[in-house]
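Researcher: Let's do a round of design. I'm pasting the structure tokens now; please hold your answer until I've finished.
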């Protein structure tokens, strides 16, 4: 006759969810997600659907690494298992094992954390640290299409002649960044040692530039060079770079130059090529003097502006003439024989999908203050504070979810661009609860998770899938199969807007689709953008082609 049944050590995460009541489990879901889901489908967060939603929203490892979620889960353990976990962690369980576990210090990466994960059967979910720049993993080839090679040759030639300034004007999807990286690589090969300085306003565009350079140089480079990421909260020192590239935020570099009196002249002494993304910002009062120092300190210094449309404004011809004058009225664009508009050529040749543009008009449930309205006039882009309030507006989110579901019914791969990290996670969670495949990809997403998500996204699996994206426009997020984009991240940056549009309009020759759909959420109080082809064709009269 068998002896008493001995239960195995530990307590599986799925088993824990099954024995925990709905009310307790709902505490694992953010209040904003609970409210939005309740507004869409009352009762959705209960029973099996609730447990499935929790399992699919985050890994068990993520829940256990979160102190708040961990406390909820530990409180649901049977008493005997709470005592067992105390024993595993080597902490006293008297008089209350639950209290002892709540008060225990469990640091990320520690032995205690690994024991905790093992106890719940989550140790197999590998927690990979952010890998940084893996140059060895970058692509071995970095080719250009013929129209891009022609543009690159004209840029190199134009920068050799005074005033050694010009603008590269290529439409969304034309390969402006890739073309420029070829120019930079050749410049670095021909000048050793030297510094290339890449300037932009937004973190998304700066991260894209840094990542794209790593990919390009791994194929086109002839030596090891340094890269300095100088924006946001980074602590890197641009003065350490004597041979390589500095990718810098305009605001951060300007503020740094005011604190370090000799800093900017020192950088200018070493820099032979400055690249200004969003070239229209070059004549802003805050930055024009700084750029003049960079472009004139050395006789051989070159200044290259990048833009998807060569004007600074939508209506002020005087400002547009000032911008043209700043770059010596020199512009390199896509000149295709037989085509008046290069966008038409790119579409008809299969480089771009034929896009359909729609707008989704949404008035948020709040009014902008006078201070907010002033910031829209003075700031280079919409402030994080306004973006955060938009991201938390339930009425706006309900319309975005409805539109996302419509796109998912008509497209196999959809990208939703959100205003904040939290909104990306919220949108993905709600879409999952509604029965769709959806994941959030943000700058905070761990590298191995991002790879796993993108492998699913770029696969040939027929089920529709959405990626909810904030702040990730790098080559590591290349997904040419995307045929629809929902842009719920308002911006004044035409370059940033164009980059978002560009994720959905890859043509067949670029591994994409014949047609694409782009839906832009328009907030009546905020600026919006129209058709990319129309925007590209403006301001031609103040420039001279090279």
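Researcher: That's everything. Go ahead.
Model: Designed sequence:
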């Amino acid at each position: 006759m068998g002896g008493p049944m001995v239960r195995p050590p530990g307590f599986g995460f799925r088993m824990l969810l099954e024995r925990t009541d709905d009310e307790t489990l709902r505490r694992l879901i953010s209040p904003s997600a609970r409210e939005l889901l309740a507004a869409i489908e009352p009762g959705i967060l209960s029973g099996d659907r609730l447990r499935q939603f929790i399992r699919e929203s985050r890994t068990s490892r993520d829940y256990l690494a979160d102190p708040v979620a961990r406390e909820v889960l530990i409180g649901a353990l049977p008493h005997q298992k709470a005592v067992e976990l105390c024993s595993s962690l080597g902490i006293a369980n008297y008089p209350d094992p639950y209290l002892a576990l709540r008060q225990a210090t469990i640091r990320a990466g520690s032995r205690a954390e690994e024991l905790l994960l093992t106890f719940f059967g989550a140790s197999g979910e590998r927690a990979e640290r952010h890998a940084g720049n893996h140059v060895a993993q970058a692509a071995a080839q970095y080719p250009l299409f013929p129209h891009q090679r022609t543009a690159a040759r004209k840029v190199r030639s134009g920068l050799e002649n005074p005033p050694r300034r010009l603008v590269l004007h290529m439409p969304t999807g034309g390969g402006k960044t890739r073309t420029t990286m070829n120019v930079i690589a050749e410049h670095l090969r021909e000048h050793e040692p030297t510094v290339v300085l890449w300037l932009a306003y937004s973190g998304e565009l700066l991260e894209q530039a840094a990542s794209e350079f790593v990919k390009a140089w791994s194929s086109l480079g002839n030596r090891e060079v340094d890269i300095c990421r100088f924006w946001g909260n980074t602590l890197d020192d641009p003065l350490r770079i004597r041979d390589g590239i500095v990718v810098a935020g305009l605001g951060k570099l300007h503020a740094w130059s005011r604190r370090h009196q000799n800093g900017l002249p020192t950088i200018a002494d070493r820099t032979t090529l400055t690249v200004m993304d969003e070239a229209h910002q070059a004549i802003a009062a805050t930055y024009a003097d700084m750029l003049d120092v960079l472009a004139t300190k050395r006789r051989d210094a070159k200044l290259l502006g990048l833009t998807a449309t060569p004007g600074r404004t939508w209506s002020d011809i005087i400002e547009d003439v000032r911008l043209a004058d700043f770059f010596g009225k020199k512009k390199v664009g896509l000149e295709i024989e037989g085509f008046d508009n290069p966008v038409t050529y790119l579409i008809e040749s299969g480089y771009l999908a034929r896009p359909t543009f729609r707008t989704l008009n949404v008035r948020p449930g709040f009014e902008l203050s006078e201070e907010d309205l002033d910031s829209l006039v003075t700031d280079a882009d919409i402030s994080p504070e306004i973006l955060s309030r938009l991201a938390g507006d339930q009425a706006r989110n309900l319309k975005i979810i409805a539109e996302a579901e419509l796109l998912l019914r008509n497209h196999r791969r959809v990208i939703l661009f959100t205003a904040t990290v939290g909104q990306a996670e919220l949108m993905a969670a709600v879409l999952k609860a509604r029965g769709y495949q959806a994941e959030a990809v943000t700058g905070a997403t761990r590298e191995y998770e991002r790879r796993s998500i993108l492998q699913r996204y770029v696969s040939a699996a027929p089920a529709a899938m959405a990626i909810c994206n904030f702040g990730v426009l790098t080559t590591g997020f290349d997904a040419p199969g995307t045929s629809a984009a929902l842009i719920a991240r308002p911006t004044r940056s035409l370059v940033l807007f164009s980059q978002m549009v560009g994720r959905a309009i890859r043509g067949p020759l670029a591994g994409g689709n014949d047609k694409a759909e782009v839906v832009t959420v328009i907030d009546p109080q905020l600026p919006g953008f129209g058709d990319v082809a129309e925007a590209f064709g403006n301001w031609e009269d103040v420039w001279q082609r090279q």
